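Instructor's aside before we start: the two examples that follow are unrelated to each other. I chose them only because their records fit on one page, so don't look for a connection. First example below.
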Amino acid sequence: MAAKERQGKRGHFPRRSRWKFVIIAVCVIAFAVLGLYLHFRTQDAQPVEVGNEVDVGLGYREIVYEGKKYRYNERITTIVYAGVDADGSLTVSSKYANAPLADSISVIVLDEYHHRMSIIALSRDTMTGIHKYTLDGKDRGVFTDHLGFAYAYGEGGRVSGMNLCEAISDLLCNVPVRSYVVTSRASIPVIADIIGPVEVTVPNNDIADEGFVEGETVVIDGSNLETFIRSRDTGKDLSNVGRMERQRAYIEAVAGKLTDYLTANSSEAWDKIMQAEKIANTSITRSSYLNLTKKLKNLQFGNSNYYTLEGQNVVGPKYDEFYPDLSQVKKLVVDLFYIEQ
């Protein structure tokens, strides 16, 4: 059975597509961590309550895990990045459940207490609880479905962003997740311009026919960045797994270089990032931008700070599905978000 590629149109996944877009978590570093400042768009859609607005209450603040007491690390900032399956500008619709699919999803954890930055890469195929909406914005409740649909069931603006944040908060044991950055595929040239050429070791042979052979070192720049991060063979089941490996290889190769550039050339970086105003949607404000750039200078990121969830990838009755190991999720959450008392 061939792997299926999803499109953010109320659950329709076209079966055949040689190329499909995924923007990788480096966009988080480029846009979110380094402070993409955009004004909220005026939303024509009617206002609705976005689930519980990620109101996790106080239950997450103190927990007991394997007989030990932990308290939530209040010096953490968590940002969700999603690269969506859309060309050009992102728009807010008057109708719900018609937004693009979140094709690439990552959680950035800025931890001032431990002086580290961590990235949790989440498969869009993760089966978890998400809120679904009717076309006129009524909340139908929570359903188990692919994580990528959490964004698709909103209106393409704030509701979509917060719905994705809420789904991720629920998945990560209800830790607070309130900030998001979403970009379309049109952000690739901006990213390539900011980062410049970088050497990457190819982690697999999934796109060897495109010249990317496992174990070889290649130079990734504006001419081949999109191919490296978006290409996959949809004639193979679970092909998103190998693509996520290439995303990780690229992130690990550019993280240090990009961080150094942005902290040393903040004004220049700002001008370039602002070019993305119409191809991004974010909850980050200017004051948040200033705080994030200050935090970034004191945080370390290494290969050991990049995480993917353990679990089982299966070919479902209609689409690929990923079922996370919830015990491993709990352990990861405790390790990244909590301090032993």
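Example two begins here.
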Amino acid sequence: MIKQYLLAPGPTPIPDEVQRAMAATMIHHRTPEFSKIFSEARESLKRLFATQNDVLVLASSGTGAMEAAVANLFSPGEKVLVVNGGKFGERWVKISQAFGLEPVQLKVEWGKAVNVDLVEKHLKVYPEIRGILVQASETSTTVLHPVREIAQLTRDGPLLVVDGITAVGVLPVPLDAWGIDVLVTGSQKALMLPPGLGFIALSDRAWKQTEAAKLPRFYFDLRLERRSQRKATTAFTPAVSLVFGLHAALKMMEKEGLERVYARHDRMARATRAAAIALGLKLLAPENPSPAATGIMLPEGIDGDKLLDTLREQMGITFAEGQDDLQGKIVRIAHVGYMGAFDVVVAIGGLEMALRKFGYPVKLGQGVAAAQEILMEALD
């Protein structure tokens, strides 16, 4: 028997409490019983997003929420500035193009965060830009972008639309306090659920823009969803079992306390980065790393795909691979959602063993020891 450890940045592990909630007997979604659970979950989501406005629950992946943001805010031919520094920055470009927008791409080297001065420069060169589309945490490169600083540039200008799919529930991304106009996330990351729910919150001025936007929308018409969800129901059939799980997951997070949730993610991320450095490995994002996942460059000559296969098939440990030009060159170790100190210990111990198997001169336990020094903070 090989015990399985899911340590990739989505889907992430699911707690027993959430599994049991999702296994509850199916009920009809137009009933007071469902409405009560749904309403309580939506109130918890408002606290998670740190907003007084509605957080809408969509039966979709996070990409559905990204598409909903574009479809509800803009009109054909409008320019949007897209921070393109990874696979999900590329996704903003593709969604914008699919809806007939004109994306102006601010390309950022993979592994780097966008320079706020460059964002400001682009806004001056293209004063007709109607929105800025950016990731808070670019999952493919494990980079954290300076969303708070970008928001300072947009308070009286274009709408700021943020993909928080590996940020919400990992670190504070307060929509109201920072002045974010749209914030989206998905269920399969920090919310400790299977894939299948998207979440989106809009500022007051973003809601105003939904009335002027001219792009086509039907299933993702956020005006219709808001009217329905304010009545504790949904415009279309919801993912009932996932909503049960969402209710349970949010209760768990609030019981732990959001500040402790954020501190736990930060501690695991710092421990993972310290372990990689102790092993003589380079970080993909050394300057602005995300606390959701750590990208680690593999030594020259090691086939990353084969190493990942060995970890998964012989040790039961699943990391994420590199994408595009990073394919076979990095591993991405997640510390997001239902994960704790000993998941980091397992991750680094497994990485050490795999590296040695592939010929890299590892002193076993060296990375684990570096991680443990930081993880000990939780015992103070």
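The radius of gyration is 21 Å.
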